[in-house]
Design goal:
This protein is α+β, with helices and mostly antiparallel strands. It has two domains: 6-177 and 355-394, Gcn5-related N-acetyltransferase (GNAT) (Aminopeptidase); 185-332, Gcn5-related N-acetyltransferase (GNAT) (Aminopeptidase, 3-Layer(aba) Sandwich), CATH 3.40.630. The chain has helices at 26-29, 41-50, 60-69, 96-100, 126-139, 155-166, 188-211, 225-241, 243-247, 255-270, 314-327, 368-395; strands at residues 34-35, 77-83, 86-95, 106-109, 144-151, 172-183, 217-222, 274-281, 284-294, 297-305, 334-336, 352-362. The chain has a twelve-stranded mixed beta sheet with strand order 1-2-3-4-5-12-6-11-10-9-8-7, with helices on both faces.
Length: 402
């Protein structure tokens, strides 16, 4: 039971496996849990276009690259919902043992590298899709689903809650946070003034003038596959040159992660769903960031900065330019920072807040096993919170009186 999600996958996945697809309809109904790579990519893309909530990290081009290459995130399984031959819901999953090393019969959202796991449900049939996914989870032998990093206030969570309510079941929020997001429908200059204030904006202009002493400052946006491939290498070099490189956590420092990001950005650039933004001083990159696009929402994945220009706030300068870029785009209504809720750079600039959390979905009413899963998850969250607090205390600078 602990390997409930892993039994469907027996070898390392590859992107070309997406062509070896599971026939929809009757064949799919006999297999509640399947390898993620068996889902037809064209069906998945159509579902993404019709999804009730945007999530750039569960686009097929991104998640299939994660599933094929990303360190520790390969070989996921999935449950799928169908309306005839049309895919109307999809949930990438791993076992609770694989996700948390807990031998309990639950399925957990497969993490797509970005911190958002809201599954795609067809907006026209969201409740039907949710009901079918829950049924397939039960048929696969799971007692519960753990939906981690899911949007708490959107159509998807409301659809699951509605289906559960029919059976007298309530979802349980294990933890929740609010992180920075951007209302891109607003005027950018007005928004930045409100967020940062006149004094801070004046200081940023002063820093930008100083940065311009190293060459003309410009904000470039790479969109085509060729442009994105070139800009990605600049981003990877910047990320590895900073503190992530010092800690050994930069993408390019892991062969699997480097393969993932190169394949993922290429796939999404081909469909117009990835941009890489770069701030330059002359010919020298000062900062770069990866941005995904799905429906009317952008997703700010990662940022890399040139430490040589640290005193000019290159990350803030890039984010301010990105804010203007997104607010000027009529196709974008909002942007998810996908950053930690206490992120010191993005929080003062993007003042909107987006609620996400980990949610436990019982699959049967009155199931005592769900209480075990819930207790285990709460113990884990408490332990992790204590570790985070300890790390913060260790890293906290000593006062002058110390």
């Amino acid at each position: 039971m602990a390997e409930i999600a892993d039994r469907a996958t027996i070898r390392r996945a590859s992107i070309k496996d997406a062509t070896n697809t599971l026939a929809p309809g009757a064949a799919a109904s006999r297999r509640p849990l399947v390898p993620l790579t068996s889902i037809a990519a064209d069906q998945w893309r159509r579902l993404s276009e019709a999804a009730g909530e945007p999530n750039g990290y569960y686009l097929p081009g991104w998640q299939l690259a994660v599933n094929a290459f990303a360190s520790g995130r390969t070989d996921a399984s999935a449950i799928a919902a169908w309306n005839g031959d049309r895919l109307i819901g999809l949930m990438p999953l791993v076992s609770m043992w694989r996700a948390y090393k807990m031998p309990l019969p639950a399925l957990v959202s497969a993490h797509p590298y970005g911190t958002l796991c809201t599954p795609p449900l067809d907006r026209a049939t969201a409740t039907e899709a949710a009901a079918q996914l829950l049924r397939r989870g039960r048929d696969a032998g799971a007692h519960a689903l753990v939906l981690r990093d899911i949007s708490l206030d959107g159509v998807v969570m409301k659809s699951f809650a509605e289906v559960l309510r029919r059976d007298g079941i309530k979802p349980r929020v294990l933890q929740s946070v609010s992180r920075a997001c951007l209302d891109a429908a607003r005027d950018a200059d007005e928004l930045l003034l409100e967020a940062l204030g006149a004094k801070k904006l004046k200081e940023l202009r002063r820093q930008r003038h100083r940065l311009a002493e190293h060459g003309e400052v410009r904000f470039d946006v790479a969109r085509s596959p060729v442009e994105v491939a070139a800009a990605l290498e600049i981003f990877l070099a910047l990320e590895a040159s900073g503190w992530k490189g010092a800690r050994g956590t930069a993408l390019v420092q892991n062969d699997g992660d480097a393969l993932f990001i190169r394949h993922a950005t290429a796939a999404l650039a081909a469909t117009g769903q990835c941009e890489i933004v770069t701030l330059r001083a002359g010919d020298t990159p000062a900062a770069a960031g990866i941005v995904l696009r799905h429906q009317d929402r952008a997703f700010f994945f990662k940022i890399g900065v040139n430490e040589r220009f640290a005193k000019f706030s290159p990350g803030v300068q890039l984010t301010s330019d990105l804010t203007r870029h997104l607010c000027a785009d009529p196709a974008i209504a909002s942007a998810d920072s996908t950053a930690s809720p206490d992120h010191p750079m993005i929080n003062p600039i993007w003042r909107g807040r987006f609620a996400i959390g980990d949610v436990l979905i019982p699959l049967r009413a009155g199931d005592p096993v769900v209480s075990l899963v819930h207790a285990a998850m709460m113990v884990r969250h408490t332990a992790r919170a204590q570790v985070r607090r300890a790390i913060q205390l260790i890293r906290k600078p000593k006062s002058k009186s110390a």
